[in-house]
Amino acid sequence: MTRPILDLDDRDDGHVNPSREPTIADLIEARMNRRTVLKGVVAAGMCGLFGGTLPTPGATTRSARSVPGFTEIGRSLDETTHVAPGYDVQVLIRWGDPIHTSGPPFRPGQQTAAEQEVQFGMDNDFIAFMPLPHASRTSDRGLLCVNHERNTAHLSWPKMSPGNYASRMTRERCEVEMASQGHTVIEIARAGNAWHLVADSRYNRRITCRSTAIRISGPAAGHERLKTRVDPAGMRVMGTLNNCAGGVTPWGTVLTAEENFHLYFIGKSKQEREAAAWKRYGIDGRGIYLWGRYFERFNLDREPNEPNRFGWIVEIDPYDPQSTPVKRTALGRCKHECATTAVSHDGRVAVYSGDDERMEYVYKFVTRGQYDPSRPAANRELLDEGTLYVAKFEENGKMRWLPLVFGEGPLTAANGFRSQADVAIEARRAADLLGATPMDRPEDVEANPLTGHIYVVMTYNDGRKADQLNVANPRAPNYCGHIIEIAPPTVDGKPDHTATECTWGFFLLGGDPVNPKHHARYRASVTPNGWLCRPDNVAFDPKGRIWIATDGQDDSVGFADSVYAAETSGERRGITRCFFSAPRGAEICGPAFTPDGTTLFLAIQHPGDEKGSTFDQPSTRWPDFKDGMPPRPSVIAITKADGGEIGS
Ligand code: FEO
Ligand code: CA
Ligand code: CA
């Protein structure tokens, strides 16, 4: 049972007023006169909270010193994008654009699955820029690897609304959805400031839930709970779905995270064996997608093991267009948000991931083997063996990574675990038993390449109650999200990502600092346009500065989702400033820089997705602005007019 730390409804604490510049520790200290439960929190607050005093690895001598050089933009909520003066926004590729030279053109409202299979997918999310040639740092030619998370049916089909979705979906439309989710690999090249698709590239490829066979590896491969009628060996699954954020490995593959897989299963199986696991993952047979009406593997009555084949991290080799993607079950099964790698001091590789749901956990996997650039073949199976951990934040500024290892602690047959496969398949329940810290929708987890510090982004949690507060999630409800910074210990000046004990602090608590309901906290004053709400996906530029994309500012504080930049060290650490804003209804995903920092790619996901907005009457027709053309999720490329580094 966690105890209250800050209660937003307990106004007798006074307000969080930025003009007084109190720290969260001040607030807590004030309450300590009445409550004695908080001394550990104060310690956490003093250790790195807003002050930048977390221990930094030797590498921080290279840490950022310059302030992002752009003129901050104002708030917006309109039909198009806005960017800081002196920057250009180019729409690089849109949902429905053919990815091959002779591909079929987009036919809004009439698309077929066969067409969608060779067109850019819908609702783009994670973006990786993979330089060409492989292992170079080229910044004007590369592979753009993009996830496609979801479908917005009422913006896809005529005469459809959320209210009549069930009656207007057909088998054909479900197949289009299956073809639109997954992943796209395209070659792109830059000429001057303009990027273009290389349509005749041999690398261009779609990976979909409808047609791409995926190998299963790791402890759950071949397990009874993964066997189905079409795959009696439990070794091969058709496709990947709900691909949210992701990551890139040091050996040049892309990791894509399967997030909300529970939305795809309908039916009510009589069998009881998986009932508890289904409950823990929110698989209630009601689904949202109707694929199970037409494809029995998504019907729990017909194929009760199919859900166990989703919720994994999938590894894709974009440099080999014939390669079979692999579901790496050693990394555990949850609603994975991302899979961020960091090479540790000794060459072992950590993969960090959030489980994006209210009160869920943050995970990391550490490989048993070491990454060796001179042995590319050996690196290929690194993600099959290692240790999965879950995060527990403590009250003394320390946090622990608790191992999810079969046979250790409570993870035994007495609790229903018969092997590491069971632990991986039911990672959430294993983490429950270990006492992991329930977080406020842990979304992106990213490593600062200069310092090795890990940034964990909590989007928000409006459902957290006062009696559910904990040290790492100090607001109930949490309307505006927050960012935690974890500092791993160092060995010879290099971050030790294998460590099971780290220090942590808050980087920022999102929200409007002058709105007492938000209890927002920044290290110092932010401008009226610079505060953010609902941080979601982040990226670091080559100078180690953080660029934060939001998801849900429109719903929560009434203006468009935006991208903010902040220093991660020095006097201006954590003071966010607004660089870009999206068209109405969109969230912003996938921020990714070229290695030289001169292009920032952003995924504009579900533009025009707001109440009352439909295919026939959308609230924006971005980016085409043509009659009859719905809003189209697209990847944009932002460059500086003078060709320089973003933020220089
Ligand atoms: Fe792409 Fe966690 O949503
Ligand atoms: Ca996101
Ligand atoms: Ca999100």
Brief rundown of the structure:
With 648 residues, this protein is mainly β. The chain has eleven helices and 33 strands.
Describe this structure in words.
Helices cover 10% and strands 28% of the residues. With 648 residues, it is mainly beta. It has a single domain, classed as Neuraminidase, CATH 2.120.10.30. A 9-stranded antiparallel β-sheet has the order 14-15-17-18-19-26-23-22-21, covered by helices on one side. β31 and β32 (599-605) form a beta hairpin. α1 (24-32) runs antiparallel to α2 (39-46). It starts with 23 loop residues before the first helix and ends in an 8-residue tail after the last strand. The structure holds MU-OXO-diiron and calcium ion (2 copies). One calcium ion binds next to loops.
Approximate helicity band: 10-25%
- Classified by CATH, the class is Mainly Beta
Spans where pLDDT lies below 50 across 5 or more residues: 1-48, 57-66
The CATH topology corresponds to Neuraminidase
- Tally of strands: 33
Distance between the termini: 47 Å
Helical segment tally? 11
Largest beta sheet: strand ordering: 14-15-17-18-19-26-23-22-21
